[in-house]
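Narrative of activities, Objective 1.

The group set out to show that a structural description can be obtained from nothing but a protein's sequence at a throughput compatible with the screening campaign. Below is one input-output pair from the validation batch, recorded exactly as produced.
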Amino acid sequence: MARVEGGYAAVIRLSFNAKVRLTQLAGIAVLLGVLEVLTQTKRIDTLTASPPSRIVQRIFEMAMEGKIWGEFYVTMLDIFVALTLAITAGIAIGVVLWYRPRIYDAISPYLTAYYAIPIFAFYPAFISIFGLNQIPIILIGAGYAVVAIIVSTVTGLRATPRIFVRVARSYGIGRGTAFRRIYLRAAAPSIFGGIRLGASYALVGVIASEFILSPGGLGYLVGFNYNNFNTLDLYATLVIIIAIATIFTGAFRKLENMARRNG
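Output recorded for this entry:
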């Protein structure tokens, strides 16, 4: 409440983040409204786009029919396994490179240029080695995610305030205990930031791999609907993928913020 002449007036004070979110939601609402009008009035051909209201309705229909759940399960399992591999390998490799700074400095330019490499070019090689199954898809998803986690782990460990290390040494704390209680806690926000990026990369790698050649998954469903000119189901599946990506990003951002508060 804020006092003004002649009485009281309710004043809503929004934080900067709240204003940003409201602006984002308003922009999305306007965009969806325009698209709804253009598609309903046939200004845009329904073979090109579908009305947002019909897309939402189709998502519920696909859920009720059970048409989407099997593909959803396949994709989520692939993403989970790929991200687990990337987190395990990324943190382990990051710790080793932190202990060996000369090696990290030597390969750092290559890590920076890593995402310029077309990882999908290795897909045929993975298929020839592991066969036409989920393993190549998981490896590509993990390959996309692991470097972001490696770099964030090394960056976070290197950024540990030296005063913490000096205090630990003055109290005679061993290296193992210092690593667990000081370095990892200090590096946790950076590591979780890398995991958040890694989750996005793993999702992109898995979905794109399923789209290229896969017996199942949401990416496969996108490719199937695209090849069969099923525009409505295509957009419904894309909306589900966007929702998954949004939930992933939001969840890992929450973990990152918690690590920053507790670090």
